[in-house]
Design goal:
Blueprint: E1 2-10, E2 13-18, E3 21-29, H1 32-41, E4 47-51, H2 52-57, H3 63-72, E5 77-80, H4 86-94, E6 99-102, H5 104-108, H6 110-120, E7 124-131, E8 134-137, E9 142-147, H7 148-158, E10 162-167, H8 179-187, E11 192-196, H9 202-210, E12 215-218, H10 220-223, H11 229-236
Parallel strand pairs: 1-4, 1-12, 4-5, 5-6, 6-7, 7-10, 10-11, 11-12
Antiparallel strand pairs: 1-2, 2-3, 7-8, 8-9
Helix pairs in contact: 1-3
Length: 241
């Protein structure tokens, strides 16, 4: 299982939000690139970057910061947040990003998602951010009438290979992932599932490994010191098994 340290970027800073609430922000540093290099040095094999400004507005305000990270590290990075055009995907890929995550647009513009998958294949992932089992959009500010499980079937037909699944109520709360929902999602699809939201303890990671998750994103627990990444790499054997 791949462990993805999360770097959330807002106004050029490395931040964390609670349950995606832009009014509940903690700034952890003014250099996302320095943070990325730190995670790489501690043993990360893949980084998860989110452009929070992009997620909210649809404009990639932090693309230079993302480009700087992709150029600075030797490990792959995946990027999400406001990806709503082929041109934005082109730019991220040209800037060295390995995988681009489409969120809101997977719901609102399925033709765009289809075009992206046809052009870039497994370089495209989809973020399913769920609130009570229903997909949230627009930086988690809106909840759609689309069930996450139903969306999965459509994504599979389109050829999507990877999803990032987040339970919004768990995000940033340090209360553990929603294992039950993650299990339902993983059993419902052959797509690789990256668990996100609430990963707090070594036991959480062990359980996700036992569930054969493709990956787990770790955010607030790393930044607050609840988890020490070097220990996780040593304990978990940071691989895809």
């Amino acid at each position: 299982m791949i462990l993805f340290p999360a770097i959330d970027i807002r106004n050029g800073n490395c931040v964390r939000l609670i349950q995606g609430d832009y009014d509940q922000e903690t700034i952890y540093g003014d250099s996302p690139t320095a943070m990325a290099l730190e995670w790489e040095q501690k043993g990360a094999e893949y980084l998860h970057l989110i452009d929070l400004d992009g997620a909210k507005t649809g404009n990639s305000l932090n693309k230079q910061a993302i480009k700087s990270i992709a150029e600075a590290v030797s490990i792959p990075v995946q990027v999400g947040g406001g990806i709503r055009s082929i041109e934005m995907i082109d730019e991220h890929i040209e800037n060295g990003v390995s995988r681009v995550i489409i969120g809101t647009a997977a719901i609102t513009n399925p033709d765009f998602l289809k075009e992206a998958v046809e052009k870039y294949g497994d370089k495209i992932a989809v973020s399913i951010d769920a609130r009570n089992g229903y997909v949230a959009t627009d930086g988690w500010t809106e909840t759609s009438d689309v069930k996450a499980i139903d969306l999965l079937k459509d994504l599979e037909q389109l050829g999507v290979k990877t999803i990032v699944y987040t339970d919004i109520f768990k995000d940033g709360m340090l209360q553990g992932p929603n294992f039950e929902e993650l299990s339902l999602v993983d059993q419902a699809t052959s797509i690789d599932v990256i668990a996100s939201g609430g990963v707090t303890t070594k036991e959480d990671i062990r359980k996700l490994q036992e569930m054969n998750m493709y990956g787990a994103i770790i955010g607030k627990a790393l930044y607050d010191g609840n988890l020490i990444f070097e220990e996780l790499v040593g304990d978990a054997g940071n691989d895809k098994s």
